[in-house]
Amino acid sequence: MNEFHLLIFISKEFKIDMAKLKCSDYGFECDFVAEGQIEQVIEEFGKHTEDVHGIDYSKEALMQFILRKQSN
Predict the structure, then answer these.
(1) d(CA 12, CA 19)
(2) DSSP tag of 29
(3) How many CA atoms lie within 13 A of 19 on its CB side?
(4) Taking a C-beta distance cutoff of 8 angstroms, is the pair 63, 11 a contact?
(5) Rounded to whole angstroms, what are the CA distances from 13 to 8, 25, 48?
(6) pLDDT tens digits for range 15-52
(7) First to last CA, the chain
(8) How far apart are CA 30 and CA 38, in angstroms?
(9) Helices (H), 1-72
(10) Which parts of the chain are beta strand (E)?
(11) Between 69 and 25, where is the model more confident?
């Protein structure tokens, strides 16, 4: 099991199935928001940050963003 699949497993154990990531939360002057199922948010936010901001976040890093937001 790779790190990403482990993080997905952890999110399901803690019953986290929905997520929301906003560019403005990560230092970008951008109104983009990805919201929905975790896998969908990771895909959309990752594509946006790479295409628009030139930053290629790994799926593992984006999953960490989601888990940290849930713990706040």
Answers:
(1) 12
(2) S
(3) 29
(4) yes
(5) 9, 25, 28
(6) 567 889 999 998 999 999 999 988 899 999 999 999 99
(7) 27
(8) 21
(9) 3-13, 38-53, 59-71
(10) 18-22, 33-37
(11) 25
